[in-house]
């Protein structure tokens, strides 16, 4: 299989994440990102409104896919099965770039309080969106909130295992997030018994 | 019962939260906070290192109390009972000021992305600290992570009900956070059955 070759948008994201890791989010400029990616500044602005947009663009898509999957799950599906449908929908949008970026974003976040805050707000936003989608399905409030937190944990844990594992295989993300969901479902059963 | 009278430290926190709500976190200065609280700037700096410190001081205490409560729960306590011990320890430190501030902080956070990020990072930090405290007790990883998320949800939900309810009673916080924990435990049992 030929190695995956990133286009301009992908190169910009990779360059930005590497620069954030090396010198921090705050001190990295759009000019530096474009230079590192080997494109012009005007190419940057064809793809992104600003440096911040580069990080939030993916987040909005993720939130939309998770909630769409939950909304479109069969009417009889239980809350965690609906969450599973959301995970499958969101996972299917994650390709080689996301997998390759995973450990690099983790490294960039580790050294930047600004990025830690963004990352935390992203988790909270995903949980809120999933809670709302479950409540729309008629799931009562505390159950919906808990199922949504389980969904966020499952996505994070599955994504981490997928992106930190052997990236030369061509495994998709969905089996990883579904395995994490099954593990958390079992953990929930264990917790309710003690 | 006499109305509770705040001291300088408490007046500074109240003034800051009101100013954050009125004009945003970024544009509020230490000078304005001190003026509104009716104290000098040097009094401000006797209590807090800077504007940011005013928000994070309480968070560190909360995290410490939650994890101490978990660590000191009886050896035979299950994960959620240990979380309950953490909630009791942390709740006991919350008095009239915290109760009065609850809705005001919520209003300030609602209008400030900066404060939303801080608030989100606080939740993530509390969950990580509780997960670590549970793992130290020998709780296996996915169960610990889930129990910690349940603990954070229970604290947030219990605190919201306590601070948004009738604040003229002298109820303590602990029964609210423990009731929220019981509700989430039942939600977990419901989720694992479907």
From TrEMBL, chains A, B:
SUPFAM superfamilies: Homeodomain-like. InterPro entries: Homeodomain-like_sf (IPR009057), HTH-type_TetR-like_transc_reg (IPR050109), HTH_TetR (IPR001647). Residues 6-66 form the HTH tetR-type domain. It comes from Actinoplanes philippinensis. This is DNA-binding transcriptional regulator, AcrR family. GO terms for molecular function: DNA-binding transcription factor activity; transcription cis-regulatory region binding. Residues 29-48 bind DNA. It comes from the Bacteria. Gene3D superfamilies: Tetracycline Repressor, domain 2. The keyword DNA-binding applies. Coiled coil: none annotated. The lineage of its organism: Bacteria, Bacillati, Actinomycetota, Actinomycetes, Micromonosporales. Keywords: DNA-binding, Transcription, Transcription regulation.
């Amino acid at each position: 299989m030929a190695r995956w070759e990133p286009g301009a948008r992908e190169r910009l994201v990779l360059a930005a994440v590497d620069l954030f890791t090396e010198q921090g989010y705050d001190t990295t400029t759009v000019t530096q990102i474009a230079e590192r990616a080997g494109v012009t500044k005007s190419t940057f602005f064809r793809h992104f409104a600003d440096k911040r947009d580069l990080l939030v663009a993916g987040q909005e898509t993720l939130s939309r896919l998770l909630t769409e999957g939950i909304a479109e799950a069969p009417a009889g599906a239980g809350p965690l099965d609906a969450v599973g449908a959301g995970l499958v929908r969101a996972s299917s949008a994650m390709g080689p770039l996301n997998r390759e970026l995973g450990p690099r974003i983790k490294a960039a976040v580790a050294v930047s309080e600004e990025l830690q805050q963004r990352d935390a707000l992203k988790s909270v936003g995903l949980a809120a969106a999933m809670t709302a989608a479950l409540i729309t399905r008629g799931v009562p409030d505390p159950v919906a909130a808990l199922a949504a937190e389980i969904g966020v944990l499952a996505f994070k844990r599955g994504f981490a295992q997928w992106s930190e594992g052997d990236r030369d295989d061509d495994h998709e993300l969905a089996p990883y997030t579904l395995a994490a969901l099954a593990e958390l479902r079992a953990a929930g059963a264990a917790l309710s018994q003690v």
